[in-house]
Amino acid sequence: MTGHRTLSELASPNNGYSYAFLDEYAKRELRRKTLKAIAIPGYQVPYASRELPIARGWGTGGLQATLSLVGPEDNVKVIDQGADDSVNAANLRRFIFRVSACHTTTDTLAATIVQSRHRVPEEIMGEHQILVLQVPDPEPLRGVESDIGKSREMHGDGEYGLLWLGLYEQLVRYRRVTIGASYPALVHGRYVMSPSPIPRWDVPKLHMAQHLTILSAGREKRLYVVPPYTSVKPLEFDDVPFRIENQRGWTCRISGGSNKFMSEIPLQSGGAEHEISDTSYREKLVADVKRVDGTECAGVPYYDNETGHFYIGGFLKDEEL
Amino acid sequence: MYVAARGGEQAILNAEQLFHSLKSTFNADDVRRVESTMPYLIDKVMGEGSLYAPELAALAILYTGGDLYESVLMLRAFRSTQPRIAYAKTLVQDDWLTVRRISAAFKDIPGGQILGPTLDYSHRLLPLEMLDNERDHGPISSTLPVQMIRNSELLTRQASLPAVADWQRAEGLLPELPFSASSVSPDSLPDVTREPMHIPADRAVRLQLLGRADTGGILSLGYANMRGYGTVHPTVNELRLGYADVTITHPVSGEPFSIGRVRLSQAEIVTTFKGAAEKPELALGYCATIGWNEIKCIAGSMLDMAMDLPKPHPSHTEDYVLHHTDPVESSGFCIHYKLPHYVTFGSDLDAMRAVTAAGDYLKTTGASVPLGTPGSFSENAPNGAAKSGKELS
Question: Considering the domain A24-234 in this protein, what is its CATH number?
Answer without folding.
Answer: 3.40.50.11310
